[in-house]
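Summary for the steering committee. One of the milestones for this cycle was to obtain a three-dimensional model of the protein with flavin-adenine dinucleotide bound, which we needed before selecting residues for the alanine scan. The sequence and ligand used are listed below.
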Amino acid sequence: MNIQKQVLLKDYATFKIGGPADYFVEVGSVEEVAEAVAWAKEHGQKIFALGGGSNLLVSDLGFRGLVIKLGLKRLDFDGQKVVVGAGVFLAYLLNQALDSELTGLEFLAGIPGTVGGAVRGNAGTYGLAMDSVIRQVNYLDENFNLQSMVTSQAEFSYRHSIFKTKPYIILEVELELKSGDVSGARTLVAERLKYRKDTQPNEPSAGCIFKNIRFEDVNIDDLKARGIEIDKFTQHRKIPAAYIIEKTGLKGYAIGDAQVSEKHSNYIINKGQAKSDEVVMLISYIKQQVRDKYGLQLQEEVQLLV
Ligand SMILES: Cc1cc2nc3c(=O)[nH]c(=O)nc-3n(C[C@H](O)[C@H](O)[C@H](O)COP(=O)(O)OP(=O)(O)OC[C@H]3O[C@@H](n4cnc5c(N)ncnc54)[C@H](O)[C@@H]3O)c2cc1C
């Protein structure tokens, strides 16, 4: 195990923002994860589990503790059952599944990041998310004991799971896929990737900053009265945060090098040298403006390591 000191986290985050971690280690096996957490315990260091860094805003001050980059790459197919390590990239998993004639992961097309991060945030698109394919999650609990839970215990909901409220480290996940129309699935994936390319910014970002707004969480009549075109969004019963931010007039608004993307208003892009504080200020400005104009409280989808 190679524990490094003072490793710049901006090099491990798609936002390209973030100062140094005091300690940093990349682990490639469950045994190495156990070794790394034992080291942190022995040296009184906090730990942070890092996947692909695609849902993260890291402070310019960095992280006081040990960042454990999960490089767990196990990927075993057994009929429709798949066991996948937390460090496997979603794009690789999707392609390998299709090569094995299995469907059900098309909703992952274009989502960067790893399986561990995707389980924690129940990542997804088009109304489907990780909970639609997960059967079991193997993890280390707060006492670093190996545990597993089935899907119904993981408290999955929109961009949420139990892993957001407990300091567990996800190690491996068991998925159940389908033997469906693979050629149709490939076409769908290609279409979705093209759509993303056309509609999402190329600059460094952490994807969508805010969660979309669920109908059940808001007063629909009040929003209609304020000019929100609710009828456009009845299919998924969510109002896109991008729509609200654009309607608030914030498309393109910038603080320093942090800017609300002109291409997709729920993305904040790093135009070059954006500081974590600038992004934090921009996030709170957007929240305040949206609250003032529409009485809506936006909630962050991005994870802050600040
Ligand atoms: C261009 C772009 C497009 C995106 N599009 C989408 C989209 O369509 N849908 C969507 O849902 N998301 C999207 N995202 C966000 C992001 O890709 C997903 O949330 C992804 O699942 C994050 O995975 P990660 O491995 O990068 O996690 P990281 O960013 O590394 O970590 C995110 C959080 O998960 C925790 N974590 C990571 N691995 C583990 C583990 N093994 N055990 C415990 N905790 C862990 C981290 O501690 C952190 O709190 C997008 C991001 C970008 C940059």
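Key point for the committee: The radius of gyration is 20 Å.
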